[in-house]
Amino acid sequence: MSNNYFDTENGHKSFEMPGARPHYNPDRPGQVEHIFLDLVLDIPKQSFRGTCSIRINPVRSGIDKLTLDAVNLNIKSVKVGETEQNFDSDGEVLQIQLHEPTTAYEPITIAIAYSVEKPQRGLYFVGPDKHYPDKPTQVWTQGEDEDSRFWFPCFDYPGQLATSEIRVQVPRQFFAISNGELVSTKNDGDDKIYHWSQTQVHPTYLMTLAVGDFAEIKDEWNGKPVNYYVEKGREADGKRSMGKTPKMIEFFSKAFGYPYPFPKYAQVCVDDFIFGGMENTSTTLLTDRCLLDERASLDNRGTESLVAHELAHQWFGDLVVIKHWSHAWIKEGMASYCEVLWTDQEYGKEDAAYYMLGEARNYLAEDSARYRRPMVTHVYREAIELYDRHLYEKGACVYHMIRAELGDELFYKAIQTFVRDNAHQTVETIDLLRAIEKATGRNLMFLFDQYVYRGGHPDYKVAYSWDGDSKLAKVTITQTQVKDNKNGNGNSKDVFDLKIPIGFGYKPEKDADERNAANIKTFTVRVHEREQSFYFPLEEKPAYISFDVGNKYLKTVALEYGVAELKAQLQFDPDPVSRIYAAHALAKKGGLEAVKALSEVLKKEPFWAVRAEVAGQLVEIKLDQAFDGLVTGLKDKDARVRRAVVNALGKIKTHETYKALRSIVEKGDDSYYVEAAAASAMGAIAGANPDEKPTDEQVLKELKLVLKEREGWNEVVRSGAISGLAQMKTSEDALNLILKYTAVGTPQALRLAAIRSLGTISTGQTKLNLERILHRLAELSKETFFLTQVSVVVGLGQMETRKAIRILRSLADQTPDGRVRMMADEAVQRVQKNAGSDAAVKQLREELDQVKKDNQDLKSRMENLEAKAKKDKD
Description:
By secondary structure, the chain is α+β, with helices and mostly antiparallel strands. It is 41% helix and 22% strand. The N and C termini lie far apart (69 Å).
């Protein structure tokens, strides 16, 4: 059914990979009321044993067979009371033949004794070895999406909600934390037994356990414990990274109209975690890579956003639970949107608007380069495949559009109604629509039909002209995603029908606030055809035009305004996103006037994100004068702007640029990221083919020094050096250095960067070196660690030889992880496409690059002559 919504005729790949099929929740034999795990861990042997007791209230009489999910569990016995039950376990499911059939609404408790050795998924043992002797000893779980079945037998789907208990025996030096409240602790010889109880219902995928020699940092909110658990010695990083949690709890409690619902909130930072974070009920697990040192916190808000995201799930996901994975956008979209809401709360509206633009861009990138899909679909191979940018970022955009339609007051009223009405229950998308209508009287099905139940978004082209005699502004809007047909209306199913506000802005009067919404006259028009022209009577010609005032709707937009209008918008529009759109459109115009305007903005624009975006656009104007405009940005007070400037300068591959970047690498910068970007850009310049460039030997010397001396937080700077080496695609010495850092024992973050870089450097190497790369990636593909497998797939996916396909397919067949499998399948498609690039195509590319360079030189000289002539004339 979902195929009807895939716009494959518009050139978008289908989301559905071979083997995809419809998925539904299984039939429900009854309500699971309680799950009790009583476990003993044997950490040295990476194994555990125990009993899983499940109390189930049958929905009907006469049930004589129960089927539970239980993957690779060694089932010892199954009992109801003291009576042994017959059972069969095939490594995927546990089938229990009940001795006495059920009686409706008379609960039974099934006790399953079992053990697990070296679990494949679900529960993970982490510890030191000869290559990484300093790695901490830890045990942690990860249940989403359907991995709880790998560590205890259960009905493993989100539609079943139950209370839970976990009692676990661990070596005495370790601390064990789980959902809910700590009921008791008990010493047992050299071991200690922790007993945790979760008295509010939740699904199996949110049951968790984390064990380690953690340092505990105590905090609180309204008398409830809010604690952070980190490896000992990192207490300052833990407080720095998670210290705003109580403030966030207060903010979200008010926003959702529902006080934080659980007895405690714990955040546990664990080693080798396979996600950024996981919102287990009352006990979030986070990757220890999110812990910030003082220098990293200068320009890294990612950790703060991660903490906000996982906390928001305590309401959206844990308190209100999705009934089926196909509706996961409800929780993931809101958690992602809460990153925006928190940014607004903590840093202001401009930062929030820019964060929202980033969410939209992430989705748009996936839609254009990967696939297009409806947000709600039950057709997939594994549920984890749904956890993409359609689910997270597009979901956030949908919540933002709901807010735009309702206004702030009604938006929060609707969200609070949804939370209150569905607390401790399961929901589907229709329940959100019902809550909106109940709270506000508004029916937003038209928005959901366009953005949730089908794929895609509108692509607008906006043109403007002014009729001075009639004092009419004409705005022509074309939905370019719609293919034209004979009657000129296009295919109606591809057209979006939205009411878009269009603003006409005027320059402020002297001594007035330069950016004031009062200086914009706004009209709202219904855009519902492929192409429409609107006429607006105005008292005087506007200075600029603002399409979709406030930028509420998910879209792409190409502005076809004059240079004067774009410059005015860049200067006066109060919305930073509109200023950014103007900067992009101005850069496309090109020419010296655009360079001057953007260079001026880079110096004077007060908002850091606009300056950063302008840096990225300046370099797109292929004039030598762009360099002069950019260099001033290297002294910007905001590290994020300096980083954008460095990335832009890396595209100007001259010796002058190289010297500017080398100075940053040698002298350093307050920001890890700026140093990393400079190191990467140096390699890109060395890897280019212009006449004026540094020698490979010079750059290799610089990057070797970085690799030798710049160890630091998450290996950001040294990974930048690896990225730089990867750009030196014809250098065997660079390849040898990268290969060296793929060895075990290399710090993990740096090793993963090196593995990914093998794919980048492969496209310029000799056949012999290409074989070396393939051999190394084939060896690495046999490692079982999730992040290593992902890095191998990324590396192989960049290659231009069909020999990479065999390794990818082998990895896809052997990995237990659905994410890796899907990434590998998609990488095969990319390699097949890349492999078509033969020598003739490469030669054409090189010739085209030379033509572009010659054209840039010529345009720069012409612009200088024109500017000089104009000056002489004046």
